[in-house]
Amino acid sequence: SLCVSLSVIIVKSTGSTMMASRALCRVSLRAVERPVVPATRAYSTDTFEFETKPCSAHKIDAPPTLVTTTKDECWNFLEKMMTIRRMETAAGELYRAKQIRGFCHLYSGQEACCVGMTSALDGDDGIVNAYRVHGWAYCMGVSVKAVIGELLGNSSGCSNGKGGSMHMYTEKLYGGNGIVGAQVPLGAGVAWANKYLGKRNIGIALYGDGASNQGQNFEAYNIAKLWDLPCVFVCENNKYGMGTSAERSSASTEYYTRGDYIPGLRVDAMDVLAVKNATTYAREYAIDNGPIVLEMETYRYNGHSMSDPDTTYRSRDDIQTMRKTNDPILNLKAKMVEAGFATEAELKKYEKDIRKKVDAEVQAAQAAAPTDMADLVNHIYVGEKLKGIRGCDITVSYDQA
Fold first, then answer.
1. When comparing pLDDT for 10 and 193, which is higher?
2. Is the per-residue pLDDT at 10 higher than 60?
3. Does the pLDDT of residue 11 top 80, yes or no?
4. How far is CA 68 from the centre of its chain?
5. What is the pLDDT of residue 240?
6. Which string of b and e fits 128-156 if b means at least 16 CB within 10 Å?
7. SS3 state of residue 72
8. Is the pLDDT of residue 41 over 60?
9. Neighbours of 340 (CB within 10 A)
10. I need a surface site. Which of 59, 111, 113, 119 has the fewest CB within 10 A?
């Protein structure tokens, strides 16, 4: 029997349509202590080359370390990372004000992962993520208002307020999944669908270091390699699971080697340019050769979730040291100044503009109406109208219209 759960694919007779079921900064400019080593000083042009940290490689040659970027690309990356940082700061404030309830997993510190990876993808590549998904949803086209609205549980949310922090979707973002590691086989299923349909696209299965020891990961590795599926397995290693460091939970923390017979790369995921470079390389490999594992070495600034006091397994000094010396936004700012793409004054003004823009969208989300009851009880079964649907209050029930 096949011991792996692949996503259910329904293909219309045209073979061209895949339908998948869906549930429906403040950042200051400070000196970065890690040195930026430019290969050239092209101040008079809009392109620049940087030397990135070499990837550690397993059963594959590492990608080149010299990357070329442009002024427009850097400003685009900065805008997205600053927006996500400010959005997550606002989400944390709303949670502490008790306007956001339930689970809330913030992405602050890891912005270079989603921004760098999505910049290297084709529009038809599919992504399946775990529950730290706010930044990914934004990069896949969900507005700040729709992300915050979803956290608030109202009608402006991208899932109409019914999914919350862990369940955000777009046409090619198949969640946001709440069960630890369960999304990894789904990512292999997306890759299988692309191969079945003859498309030169990949499926990306994201998970954290805390989920890396789940059995379904290895089942997905196996079937992906057996069938040479164009799947990129991505471990976002932010160093800590739920209250536990990676070293205490994993006998081997070299997550990029965990695929054994599948090649892998460890990437400096505090550098958005290195992330894009490695993702481009991995995508091309997966399409032509089959699965690959990427370990994105990153860091989270907040607790596992908002309910995690984040004081028992690391110190405040550890977090502050990382913020000062290896923050992904500060790293990119330093590169932009080095390349002549921006001045410190321009970057400070830009940050203020981003903050105003994000805050305006947050306010719009707060002002949105509650999700209509008729919508709250919808999307339970297809083609069947239910009666007597109830929530927490057993004395009140609703019928589907």
1. 193
2. no
3. no
4. 24
5. 86
6. bbbbbbbbbbbbbebbbbbbbbbbbbbeb
7. helix
8. no
9. 15
10. 59
Per the DSSP assignment, residues forming a β-bridge with 206 are 234
Give me the sign of the Cα torsion angle 63, 83, 329, 210. negative
Calculate the CA 282 to chain-centre distance: 17
Using DSSP, how many helices (H) and how many strands (E) does the chain show? 12, 12
Q: From 315, 296, 322, 302, select the one nearest 234 (Cα to Cα).
A: 296
Q: Could you tell me which residues come within 8 angstroms of residue 391 by beta carbon, excluding any fewer than 6 positions away?
A: none
Provide the β-strand partners of residue 49.
Answer: 68
Q: How far apart are CA 330 and CA 6, in angstroms?
A: 40
80 to 30, 32, 86, 280: CA distances (angstroms): 19, 20, 10, 19
Q: Residue 365: beta bridge partners?
A: none
CA neighbor of 234 nearest in space, from 208, 272, 269, 254:
208
Q: How big, in percent rounded to 5, are the helix, strand and coil portions of the chain?
A: 40, 15, 50
Say how many CA atoms lie within 13 Å of 388 toward its Cβ: 0
Q: What per-residue confidence (pLDDT) applies to 100?
A: 94
Number of neighbours of residue 389 by Cβ within 10 angstroms? 15
CB 125 within 8 A of CB 204: yes
Question: Which letter does DSSP use for residue 173 in this model?
Answer: B
- CA dist 372 to 75, 96, 152, 156, 230, Å? 39, 26, 14, 11, 41
Count of residues making up the chain: 401
Q: Is the distance from CB of 232 to CB of 205 less than 8 angstroms?
A: yes
Render pLDDT for 172-197 as a digit per residue (tens, 0 to 9): 999 989 899 999 999 999 999 999 99
Phi, psi of 348, rounded to the nearest 5 degrees = -65, -45
Predicted confidence band of residue 45 (pLDDT cuts 50, 70, 90): low
* Averaged pLDDT for residues 122-140: 96
pLDDT bucket at 29, cuts 50 / 70 / 90: very low
> At 362, which amino acid appears?
V
40 has pLDDT over 70: no
Crossing angle of helices 71-96 and 344-367, in 10° steps, is 40
